Amino acid sequence: MLAVIIERMALTYTAAISQLLSLADFERKSRASDPPEFHLRRIERLLGYLGNPHLGQRFVHVAGSKGKGSTSAMIAWCLSAGGYKTGLFSSPSIHRITERIRINCQPVAEQDFARLVEDLWSAVEQVTADGDIGIVSVFELQTAMAFCHFAEVNTDISVIEVGLGGRLDSTNIITPLVSVITPISLDHVSILGDTIAKIAAEKAGIIKLGVPVVTSRQDPEALEVIRSTAEATHSTLIKSIESVNLLSRTDWGLDGTKLEIELDGASFDVRLRLLGSHQEDNARTAIATLAQLGKQGLPVNFDAINVGISSVDWPARTQLVSSRPNPIFVDGAHNDASGRALLKTITKLFPGRAGVILIVGSVRGHDPSAVARELASLEPRVIVTESRHPKSLTGKELADALGAGKIVVNAITTSTHQALDMARALANDGDLIVATGSLFVAAEIIEIEKGIAPEFYPDIKPATSPASTNRNLPAHSVDD
For the whole model, what pTM was predicted? Predict the structure, then answer.
């Protein structure tokens, strides 16, 4: 009798995305019937079934309301430039879901992404079968995928960006070499709390016993929470704006800035291509973090810091997408603090603008009119729109929200394509087009202008198993 061996076909990249997104998805709310339940017990269980791949690895952990993605990227790019095999786990993705897991700044390969989903799936099913702790969420599985991949390739160190909050975020399973907290502002108030102090307490939840914590420039109320938490955990608190001195700044406008930095009595130059004065503070926070890593046996020299920061590619954050016939500038600003930073950046970089046409979109969970209020002094003509994201407010909903705030809406659109076409039609010579309110709106404008093919997938409805997924549903982008 001949034995017939059937080789199991590997999961394709597209199928892996669908399988991943069949889980509880609190980011996209495609599993709206599953209420959010934030705790660390499920990620602990999942990682336990996987052999606890995070143990023994070296990490930097980054939380904050704004700037945490850019700061994480700067740290990772500098470590890579310094010769370390560096992992980076971040969210959301801008164009492709593979961007969330990177090695030496490069997104994980599609085949590795698919293999990770396939390899980890039995542990996901075991957590479900246990029946006492709920089903694994999309973000929890992505977190586990990152830890497993970093262990597989044997990274020297990995930078882990918090997804939401900090204290109960699934990334908070790690004990890092350094904790980092970027500026804290009111955001996700329905989940994290309605005051700066409450939100700061959630962010400061990443501070571990005896682990140094680097903080960016903070609201005094947030800084006091961070300080008291550091004191309670016997953690050294490093204020980046005090430990990293900015000696001089040479402004190159849309080409970036040259910063002369002083650290531990020595000075060096850094070319910062990310635009906006808030990115200068992010760079100082990244450098302060690298200095702490140097004290723990992972030194990065000044040349590597300059190479790393000057080469960071972090789209949709204060980015000039096109210059002609009208400049198109995008940013993911989505709360009042980031709106103020965007206003400052626009005022500085485009002093000769004739007028501003503002394309704005928002997702549920944020204050939909916050950014538009902050930009009102520019007297923009406002076009409201909606991204492909399932949590996107409709143009009508956003127009109503802005109208309630006495913000005049000039046009309502139902897609970023339509909004950009209308902005171009309205634009006069010298006008600036700004697209903001959400990273997802910014990302779609970039895709339109740069000819980047968006990554689509069938939106996943509640299903009893991945195999029952309907693959003929309307498509959405993979972004958060």
Answer: 0.91
